[in-house]
Every structure is written in C-alpha cells, then in structure tokens.
Amino acid sequence: MGLNIILRYLLQRLMQIIPVLLGISCITFGLMHLTPGDPAEIMLRADGIKPTLEATRAARHALGLDGPIHMQFVHWLYRVFHLDLGKSYRSGLPVWEELMSRFPATVLLSGSSLLTAILIALPLGIGSALYPGSLLDRLGRACALFSVSMPGYWLGLLLIYYGAVKLKWFPMMGMEGWSSVILPACTLGFGMAGIYIRLIRTSLLEVLGKLYIKAARAKGLREWQVISGHALRNALLPSLTLLGIHTGGLLGGSVIVESIFSWPGIGRYAVEAIFAKDYTVIQGYVLIMAVAVVLINVAVDLLHQLLNPRIRLR
Amino acid sequence: MNRLHMFKSNGAKAGGIIVLLFVCIGIFAPWLAPSDPLQIHMEHKLSMPSWEYPLGTDHLGRCVLSRLVYGTRTSLYYSLMVLAAVFSISIPVGLLAGYVGGIVDHLIMRVIDILLAFPSLILSLAVTAVLGPSMKNLLISFAVVWWAGYARVIRSMVLQIKESDYIMAAKAGGATHLQIILRHILLNAARPILVLASIEIGTIMLSIAGLSFLGLGAQPPTPEWGVMLNDSRPYIQTEPRLLLYPGLAIMLSVLGFNLLGEGLRKPGQKEEL
C-alpha cells in the first residue's frame, strides 16, 4: 500500500468532514445567540464597567456583535481560525489558553482510564470467548452487566469511601502524585470495560469460526500462534473503532468523574463555567470537543484501514 | 416470536421482576412511603434507622426511605418523558428519511452526522447551560440532542422494511403512501423500536440521575436519586450509609432495565434486529 493512496484517502476524508465542521460551528455559534442577556453587557459588568449605551455599543463592536448575523458569523469564524475563542467572562483570560492549560490533566486521566478498561476487558473478553460457558465466561458476563449498569458517579463515591476514607491509600481528590489518578481512572475504566468485554467476546467467537483459522490450524501452527497471530488481529479491529469513539468522549473530560474527584481537567472547568454562566467558555469548549471528535474519527478510520489488510483503500 | 418465549432466559425474568417492582413502587409511592419526603425535621437530622425512619434521616432530617420511594417516581417519570420526547422526533424523521429517500434523506443524514459529532452529554450540557438548570430544560436538551442517533437506527429499519415483498404487494394493490407508512412500515418497525427503547431507558435513567447529581437536572428539594447522592457527598466520612441507598437504587433499576432489554433482544435478534 503506497503512501500516495493513504494521502489520497486522508484528503478525501478531510474533504468529507468540511460540511460537518461547518455545521458544528453553526450550532455552536447559534448556541451563543440563544443565551439570555446581551453578551456585551455581561462582559462589561464582569469588568466592573457600568453598561452605558455608548460603552455597550463599543463592547459590541469589539466582540464583533454589531452588524447582520451572517457577518457576525463570518467574523466569529475568522477569529476561531486564529484560535481566538474570545475571553472568559469570569477571568478575562483567553478561552483557548484556559482550556489548553487544563488539557494535560484530562489527557492523563483519559489515557489511564482507557488503559484500565483494556486491562480489565482484554483478559476477560479473550478468556470468555476461548472457553464459552466456563466460570471465566460467567465472570466476564457479570462484569460486563455491572459495568453498564453501575452509575459512574456512585462507583466514584464508593471508591473514595473505601480507598481514601477507610483505607487511606489514596488521596480523596485533586491531582497530587501518581496515586491520585488511580481512583478516577478505575471509575472511568470500569464503566467502559463492559462494552469491550462483550465486543471482544463476540468478535473473537466470530473470527474463530472463520476458514482462515481452520487453515492456520491445518498448517500445524500452535494454538497460541493461531489465536495471537490470526484470530486476535482480526477480532480486535471493532474494539479499535470503539476506542476511537471513547477517546473523543474522554477528551471532553468526563464531566461527572472530574467533578467528583476535583480533577483539574477540562470537564470540571466546563461545569464550573456552566454554573457561572461563562458562555464564551462553554462555547469554546463545545466547539473544541466536537472538532476533536471529528478529527479523532478520521484518525481511527485511517488506522483501521492501515491495520486491516482486507479493507482496500478506494 | 412467541410472546412468552422472550421471558425464557433467567436474566430477562430477573430483569422483568426488578422493573415491575420499581414501576409498582413508583405508582404506589404515596401509599408506600412512611412519611412526607419533603418534611424537614432539623431535630432528627442524620438520625440512624428507627421504627419511624426505617432507613434513617438525611442532613435535613427528612426520611430517606420516603425520599427513595418518591425518587423512583421522579426517575421513571422523567425517563419515560425523555424517551417519549426523543421518539416523537426520531420516528417521524427516520420514517421521512428512509421512505422518501433522495435529497431529503441526504439532508437529514447530514444534520444527524453533525449532531452525532458532538459528544452527546456535552451538547446536552451546553443546552442546559443556555436554558438554565431545571428538570424541564434537561428534558428539552436530551430530546434536542439524542433524537439523532435513534433517527438513524429507525431510518435503517425503514430502508430494510421498504425492500420487502409485502410493501411491493401493498404498492401494487394501490395503497397510498400514508397507508404504507402507517400500516405497513410503522407497524412492522414497532417491535424493534420497543426493544430499542427498553435497552436505552437504562442509559437515559443513568444520564438523568448523573446530571441531577451535578446539579443540572432535578433541583433540591425534589426527591430524586441523583440529587440525594449529591446531598450525601459532604457526609461521606461521617454518614457513608447516606450515599449507599440512592446509588443502590439507581444501579438496581438500571440493571433491571438492561437485563430486560437484553432478554427482549436475544430471541428477536434472529428475525428482526
């Protein structure tokens, strides 16, 4: 597979997402116009300036809020392209920088939760597919069921109670030291693990019935070679797609888990912004997250194409 | 599919019983609750279980059991409302896209693609933020955001049904479009849609309680499980039992709906889904 084909595919996909990105920006822009109150006035009040008629007009001009709505949209889009998402009503700092400064914490949490999910799901999923009906299979099924039924916010509180209050092994909240990431990562990871257990189990069972597995066995390969080299490689592809979707969602910061553990990430910041009616922050947050999800999906598709020899790039 | 056949698996049976139990608790809440869920008794605050308060009282001296019982009502009621709102958008849209096809289908699908690009909870949060936190606004924000995914599923159901022979026969028999849509397509899609609903209601309950927990859904003093869980947070070190009950209630009810949904899906899967 030549680099040329990959580049062409990538370009094609990027062309496809342009209307989606445009739609996303329309919705995000429109959201601001549904907000009660005049943004210019709110900003002036936040700065401690009395919103006289003149001051409001000047502020509106500065925010690009005068003129017809389509021109406002164009202005706004122009600024977004230059990573100018406006300033936070509360702190007066640029929204882009505020969000980016909280991003590393969220990435750390996302990565560790995905790792936790995989560490739970991989052995259980593979085990239950290899030995259907066994004790391991039942354990996997029970684990999957609880994983999708357990409210993450409750699991988080229980983990805080047992891990931090009773045993005192972990800090209750905040981000201090490596041990502080364990409880939130377990909360998020367990919640995701269930879907992976089921997905790995069904796709591995399906693959094991395929002819090329029979061929590999007939060739005289050892069982572990058949499983790891032939079966797993194909069976894990659907999980990869799901992993992409989850990564997108996680980067938005798990709003609830970050709030429970006072994790200094992007999700908790968004919740604070909602309560403070900091609309520019909310707008910037929604926009960045949607764009990130779209781009991650493209990346996952590309990865999917590269790893699966049977999908031919058009 | 035999109607009784779907309750063959033990999981579905257990799920059905749990769901029925919660539905009964919800319906008969006023008779089951030992006291008023809103009545504040500061002199009894944080008291241990007793004859008067079987599960003790919360930080305002309200009866925990009564709040749990009424919370069942709140949770089920709003979950069904969200489900109804979501389906009242997604069914017509899905039918329209699948049946009419062409440019209409193309346009609808683009809108759906755009909506699905947003992580669903985040867009709901944003809409709630704009409208202000309340249960009514939570309902609106879920409906506005979540119809897209269901519309896509219903569209693909319609596409599948549209190709079947009996639709062709109905067309040949001179049935009008409306007749075909209502009598043939919608009726045949009804069961898979119901299965979809029973699988999804667990997720809806979790999300409602989750946003209420954050303070963006039901507002205190409404007896609601998420609100109760949030109320219990300051007492995690001193009164951990307060966070046990509402969490257990959420988990059990969601577990029941999930078991039921899976049980309903399995036998039908071969034929329809």
Automatic annotation (TrEMBL), chain A:
Gene3D superfamilies: MetI-like
Major localisation: membrane
One GO cellular component term noted in the UniProt record for this chain: plasma membrane
Keyword Cell inner membrane: no
Membrane-crossing segments per the record: 14-34, 107-131, 143-165, 177-197, 240-262, 282-304
Entry's localization field: Cell membrane
Domain ABC transmembrane type-1: 103-304
Domain of life: Bacteria
Gene Ontology molecular function: dipeptide transmembrane transporter activity; nickel cation transmembrane transporter activity
Membrane topology field: Multi-pass membrane protein
Record keywords: Cell membrane, Ion transport, Membrane, Nickel, Nickel transport, Transmembrane, Transmembrane helix, Transport
Pfam families, per the entry: BPD_transp_1 (PF00528), BPD_transp_1_N (PF19300)
Keyword Coiled coil: no
Family membership: Belongs to the binding-protein-dependent transport system permease family. OppBC subfamily.
UniProt subunit comment: The complex is composed of two ATP-binding proteins (NikD and NikE), two transmembrane proteins (NikB and NikC) and a solute-binding protein (NikA).
Official protein name in the record: Nickel import system permease protein NikB
UniProt organism field: Paenibacillus jilunlii
Automatic annotation (TrEMBL), chain B:
Annotated TM spans: 12-33, 76-99, 111-132, 138-154, 193-218, 242-260
Keyword Transmembrane helix: yes
Main location: membrane
Pfam families tied to this protein: BPD_transp_1 (PF00528), OppC_N (PF12911)
GO cellular component, one term: plasma membrane
Family matches, as InterPro entries: ABC_transport_permease, BP-dependent_transpt_permease, MetI-like, MetI-like_sf, OppC_N
Membrane topology category: Multi-pass membrane protein
Compartments reported by the entry: Cell membrane
Swiss-Prot/TrEMBL keywords: Cell membrane, Membrane, Transmembrane, Transmembrane helix, Transport
SUPFAM superfamilies, alphabetized: MetI-like
Single GO BP term: transmembrane transport
Family to which this protein belongs: Belongs to the binding-protein-dependent transport system permease family. OppBC subfamily.
Protein name: Peptide/nickel transport system permease protein
Organism name: Paenibacillus jilunlii
